[in-house]
Amino acid sequence: MSIPAFASDIELTAGVLSGAPLTRRYLSDLRGSFADLAAYERALQTGNPLLYSVSAVDAPQGDGQLNYAVGTLLPGRVGPEYYLTKGHYHARREAAEVYIGLSGEGLMLLENEPGETRLLPLQSQKIVYVPGHTAHRTINTGTAPLVYLGVYPADAGHDYGAIARNNFRHVVVEQNGKPVMIERAAFKP
Ligand code: S6P
Ligand code: ZN
Known about the structure:
binds D-sorbitol-6-phosphate, 2 helices, six-stranded antiparallel sheet, 15 strands, mainly beta
């Protein structure tokens, strides 16, 4: 029996991990995610660009295993709101995750079930610890692709339902060239 270790190569510009499947999310997949509904519909009328891709390595099944994934979120905005990921809770709520920024410039928006919010920087040389019971969304506030690695328990799973229903309480928008977080309820397109 040999040690079941393996190594992956990260192709940073393509955001791909060697041998791992790539999931692509286009603007049309993000319906309901952006605050400015009219700006979203206008953007879709002019095209359906790729917003992000995720290349995930799934560990062999078994207790204590870890999965990891490279996410590549392109720069851009819908109205004043920066391109973002759908965001999710883990299906197994107690599962935490570590995000490691690889390149680009962005933020992680975190929210828990009582409705508390944190906004943390994600870029090269930043590591974000996402505790269990915390929904997480990545936001690209820069002009280059935001590339990051996420490491999470293999049995974490994804629960997109709660965010699809209620979205996050806060939005991150560009104001005077800078990212600003405001309450969704206070957002006026
Ligand atoms: C998985 C981890 C990331 C996201 C990726 C895309 O637990 O958090 O790999 O899957 O950032 O985001 P989303 O919300 O579309 O899965
Ligand atoms: Zn996650």
